[in-house]
Amino acid sequence: MRQAGRILPPYRQLRAKHDSILTLFQTPELAAQITLMPVELLEVDAAILFTDLVTPLGPMGCPYEYDPGPIFARPVRTRQDVERLRPLDPESDLPFVLEAVRLVRRGLPAQVPLIGYGGAPFTLAAWLVEGGTSKDFSRCRALLYSDPQTAHLLLDKLTEALIAFLQAQIRAGAQAVQLFDTSAGVLSREAFAQFALPYVQRVCAALAPLGVPRLYFALGVPHCLALLAQTGAEVLSLDWRTDLAEAHRCLGQGLVLQGNLDPCLLYSPPDAIVRQLRRLLETVRGRPHIFNLGHGLLPDVPFANVRLFIDTVHRFSQESP
Amino acid sequence: MRQAGRILPPYRQLRAKHDSILTLFQTPELAAQITLMPVELLEVDAAILFTDLVTPLGPMGCPYEYDPGPIFARPVRTRQDVERLRPLDPESDLPFVLEAVRLVRRGLPAQVPLIGYGGAPFTLAAWLVEGGTSKDFSRCRALLYSDPQTAHLLLDKLTEALIAFLQAQIRAGAQAVQLFDTSAGVLSREAFAQFALPYVQRVCAALAPLGVPRLYFALGVPHCLALLAQTGAEVLSLDWRTDLAEAHRCLGQGLVLQGNLDPCLLYSPPDAIVRQLRRLLETVRGRPHIFNLGHGLLPDVPFANVRLFIDTVHRFSQESP
Questions:
Q1: Quick one: DSSP state of residue A53?
Q2: Is the bond preceding A90 in cis, omega lying within 30 degrees of 0?
Q3: Å between A315 CA and nearest CA of chain B
Q4: Backbone dihedral region of A132: left (phi > 0), alpha (psi from -120 to 50 degrees) or beta?
Q5: Whether B223 and A241 lie within 8 Å, measured CB to CB
Q6: What are residue A236's DSSP bridge partners?
Q7: A277 touching B, CB under 8 A?
Q8: Best label site of A48, B45, B298, B300, fewest CB within 10 Å?
């Protein structure tokens, strides 16, 4: 459950003490402390590394500042821009991330795994081309149509960097990895098949020898459901718009699904949360399923409602093993 | 093809002459002139009324200003807020829209129909609850879960207003109407079935006796495809993420589809535009289909590329009648 930090009072205190969120990402002790918070305060079943989508992009030659999200000084839009990108060497470029991984592993209870974190290649490309976030990433979509060769070269370089980044996280102690494709939902199915899927497949294949579960989350891609079976990931995380019953039919038995409660449900009165939650839980009864939200936690949901959500899921799991 | 205006030099000149875009919406002569521009300069086959999603909301008691999109001074979030909403009387509240409709009809060639325009009830509600646009309309989604009665009351009032607004446009001369559900894509399928679909059905049913075609466009709802057959609209406009072949299979023979080229394709070199376009045109050969983009035109696409798109579609239609 990414971004669990923002609802936690100790995270907010830490954030208020530091002018820039970069300090939190780049100081191993702070990043580790934040990664551990949801485990301690919410008793979630796994920790996910506190870092950002854009973390590997700075050392590749794409500096950014937060205002409030990351803004790139020089968007990547031409063949030349892409050719200038440097390969990533995680050990020398991002030692603070790997140190955070090691610290988290030392601090985690033995039964709680640490999930490593990376933005998927298409989403990284979308941010770089746009120069930051965007409602529809139209500049990036324009590049795919107008200069597919350059787009593929960019995706190729980002894929190599991501593989190195995730391999390093695993070597430092991450026991699973999740790829976040939060911008993939702007793509048509055909564009997803051309510009997102093959690169996710390459990442998953490259990580296979390391023997850790690979999780893939894409936002807003119910129109690509059939393609999701081909990523090579063991776990598919679905957003709240994907019908779980249909996902089970479409994706077959080989995959574990994760998700997918609408995070906005957590604004409701407690009885409504429990009622809706149990309805969704019933639809996955008897199947292997990682229960979770269908997107990141919203920063202002009541802490008590998040606890209620987690406790209800735990109770259900005990009732129906 | 909504927002065709922004790529047209005469529209930009007109926009630059007036401090507020409100003047363009509220002056019948200007709104009519802008509505006619794409017909004159691009030779599209139909005109769509130049007005805004939020136009009917001001007189209902929800004033807004543009900065740059509409921002509501007082978002609608409580039962009391909803109860305070006034019913819409288009003839006295929005005479400038109806006068624009009459002027457009006088200026249009006989073979070019005028399509009336309205935001669909859920999308209007989403804007009102949020107080403006939003990436994910999480406040509105929260209201649906936490206080569904209030959400339904709001949707009920907006539906009545929309029916009156579209009836008035038709009486003034609109020969078809299109509902825009541009925020529906944030809903799960179940939420779409509860909070969007029934109100679209009510609008379509109320307009049936007037005998004009009803078009419905929802953005980002490929996960609701099967439900779209139930709106009561004669034409479904699909965004670029919906696979046309699957839509034909899923929606059967009774409906005419409209769409759905990715607007970003129009940033490409001419040969790429024609190639992609003809591929998509081949998938609809032999079926009744209204060829169009899968969303509004982006404001900075080259004018020549839009003409190329339209001319290519016209040429194809003549080849395969």
A1: T
A2: no
A3: 23
A4: left
A5: yes
A6: A216, A257
A7: no
A8: B300
What is the C-alpha separation between A112 and A142, in angstroms, rounded? 43
CB contacts < 8 A (A, B): 74
Half-sphere exposure of A56 (CA within 13 A, CB side): 30
Quote the DSSP letter at residue B55.
Answer: T
A208 touches chain B (CB under 8 A): no
Instruction: Name residues 80-139 of chain B within 8 A of A (Cβ).
Output: 135-136, 138
Q: Which of A224, A299, A287 is nearest to A257 (CA)?
A: A287
Which residue out of A137, A140, A250, A262 would a mutagenesis test of the B interface target, given it has the greatest number of B Cβ atoms within 10 Å? A262
How does pLDDT run across B232-273, given as a tens digit for each residue?
A: 999 999 999 998 888 988 887 789 999 999 999 999 999 999
DSSP state of A290: E
Amino acid in the structure at residue A195: F
Nearby residues of B76 by Cβ (< 8 Å), 6 or more positions away: B62, B82, B85, B125, B128, B129, B154
Question: pTM, whole model, 2 decimals?
Answer: 0.95
| Closest to B110 in 3D by CA, of B26, B62, B173, B185 | B173
Give the number of other Cβ atoms within 10 Å of residue B19's Cβ. Answer: 7
Distances (CA, A) of A307 to A42, A178, A201, A298: 6, 23, 35, 14
Going along A59-138, which residue ranges are E strands? 64-66, 70-72, 114-119
Phi, psi of B205 (to 5 degrees): -65, -40
Report yes or no: B222 at the A interface, CB cutoff 8 Å: yes
Residue type for position B209? P
Compute how many other C-beta atoms are within 10 angstroms of the C-beta atom of residue B283.
12
Which of A141, A240, A295 has the CB atom closest to B264's CB atom?
Answer: A141
Residue for token pair 């992009």: A57
* ipTM reported for the complex surpasses 0.85: yes
Output b/e per residue, B232-254; b: 16+ Cβ within 10 A: bbebbbbbbbbbbeebbeebeee
- Residues in Cβ contact with B308 at an 8 Å cutoff, skipping those fewer than 6 apart: B270, B273, B274
What secondary structure letter does DSSP report for A110?
T
Q: With an 8 Å Cβ cutoff, is B68 touching chain A?
A: no
The SS3 of residue B240 is: coil
pLDDT tens for A135-190 read 899 999 999 999 999 999 999 999 999 999 999 999 999 999 999 999 999 999 99
